[in-house]
Structures are given as structure tokens and as C-alpha cells.
Amino acid sequence: MGFAEADISRLLASSLIDRIDYHPTIGSTNDRAREIAGAVPYKQVVLILADEQTAGRGRGTNRWWTGEGSLAFSLLLDPGAHGIERRHYAMIALAAAVAIVDTASPLLPDVTVGLHWPNDVFVGERKLAGILVEALPDGRHIVGIGANVNNSLAAAPPELSSIVTTLSDVAGQHFDRCELLLRLLANLRLTLDQLANSPAALGLRSHHLCLQRGRTLTVQWADRQTTGVCQGIADDGALLLDTPGGPQTIYSGVIVKA
Ligand code: BTN
């Protein structure tokens, strides 16, 4: 079932957002954010929300499965208006990941919810949510979040069924997506505030929530690959790897082997 008018009114009352652009079906909420950005006043925060995406995008060339009952949305926002310094923009994805963990953890008290650098949320060994942050030339950012909520793995594409999970599959119950989104927006407001006022504290939280610590990871960054044992996440959001050649700090990259 889609979001009702009453849900949209409740979401509009969230302190983080000024406007909602809701679609029962759309290609990608991130693409829609880019399309409407020119017509949105710079300081306005817009929530682009969809029940179904026909062309949901993941990082790189990946596609994103938006199963029925999942949560798919993007926020169009100006990080500067939230007091976030330009040098910390790369940590926006971590702020979103921590907010998702803070939202999901209380609902799943018996399992470990944490994050995988650079911006995935995992329940144990399976992916619960993904984040796609894109910067616009004018400095605004699109923060796209896809979270598996009431969509069942039984309906997932076969290639995903062993690597993803959903809130309802883990908890054995359905969740009110509007309530969940309200909590997530409230938590996101807190983590964005933390990124503005105390970025190192957000880095430290990410470090504690990082489930990759102690694991051997191979990261593709720029035109090279680095393999090492993950030591967690630095205060500034970088990945810390202990490699045979010594400690390495990686600011942006893709985990190609874990
Ligand atoms: C990833 O894990 O690679 C990132 C997935 C991000 C998916 C979300 S769903 C809402 C928004 N719209 C998109 O097309 N992608 C993001």
C-alpha cells in the first residue's frame, strides 16, 4: 500500500523538510531530485518519495531493487545551510548511515545492526539499506536512501536473495513506513547537526558502528587497489587499513573484496 495523504501531512511536519514530492511510481528519486533542483529555492529541503522505482540506482553502475513495501527516497538539501563545512561533505553518507542504524537498531534488539564503509547499513552479514549521495554543481546534495522494510526476500531478484535482508524478514512483523521515515528524518537531522558541530564525534560513532573492523578488505580507489585489515573509520570519515606496507587512510573508494 502506498503513502496516504495523512502520511504526507505528517511527514511535512518533520523539522528537516520544507516540501514533499511524492510519486507512487517513478524511475529514480535521485534522478527526480536532479530534475526539479532548478525550480527549488536553494535553501529549501525537499523530500522526494516513491513507493516504486522502475530505475532505482545504486553506486557506480549498480541498480537498486525497490521491492514493494520498501522505503525509497531522496533529500535535496544544501549542506552549507545546515552548517556543514565543505571539507566534511564527504561524511554526509556516513551521517545518513548512522541515522539509519539509529532508526533500525531499536526495532531489531536481538541482532547487530551496523555499517559498512563507505555507506551501507548491514544486519549481521546482510545488507539492509544503501545510500547514494550525489553533489550538484551548485553545491547542493542529493541524499538517496533505499531501505528494505516490508519487502520480502521471497520477492527479491535471485542474485540478491543471499546478500540482502529486510526489516520485516528479520523482525517477523510489518512496520509503519511513515512512522519509520519520521524517525529516520529526525535521526538524520541529529546526525547532520553532529556533522556540522562535532564531525569528529560522528566519525567516532561510525568507527564504533563499523562491522568491517578486523576484516581483510580490498578497496578500489582512484586507479589502484589496496588490501589490508580494516582498523575502522577515522575521525574524518576515512577508512583505516593496516596493509603489508603500513597503515593507509582511504578517503573514497569501493570495497571490491571483503
Ligand atoms: C547502493 O547501495 O549502492 C546505494 C543504493 C541507493 C538506493 C536509493 S533508493 C532512493 C534513491 N534513488 C535511487 O535511484 N537510488 C537511491
Set out the fold topology:
Layout: H1 5-12, E1 19-26, H2 29-36, E2 46-53, E3 71-77, H3 92-104, E4 113-116, E5 120-123, E6 126-135, E7 141-147, H4 167-171, H5 177-197, H6 199-209, E8 216-221, E9 224-233, E10 239-243, E11 246-250, E12 254-257
Parallel strand pairs: 1-2
Antiparallel strand pairs: 2-3, 3-7, 4-5, 5-6, 6-7, 8-9, 8-12, 9-10, 10-11
Helix pairs in contact: 3-5, 3-6, 5-6
The structure holds biotin (BTN).
Strand content: 25-35%
| Termini separation | 37 Å
SSE topology string = HEHEEHEEEEHHHEEEEE
Oligomer: single chain
Content-based structural category:
alpha+beta
Strand order of the largest sheet: 1-2-3-7-6-5-4
Helix content: 25-40%
Describe the global form.
Answer: globular
Describe the structure.
It is built from six helices and twelve strands. With 258 residues, the chain is an alpha+beta fold. The strands form two sheets. A seven-stranded mixed sheet has the order 1-2-3-7-6-5-4, sandwiched between helices. A five-stranded antiparallel sheet has the order 11-10-9-8-12. The protein starts with a helix and ends with a strand. The chain binds biotin. Biotin is lined by residues 28-30, 53, 56-59, 62, 64, 72-74, 120, 130-132, 144-146.
Concise overview:
Helices cover 26% and strands 30% of the residues. It contains 6 helices and 12 strands.
Summary tags:
single chain, 258 residues, alpha+beta, 6 helices, binds biotin
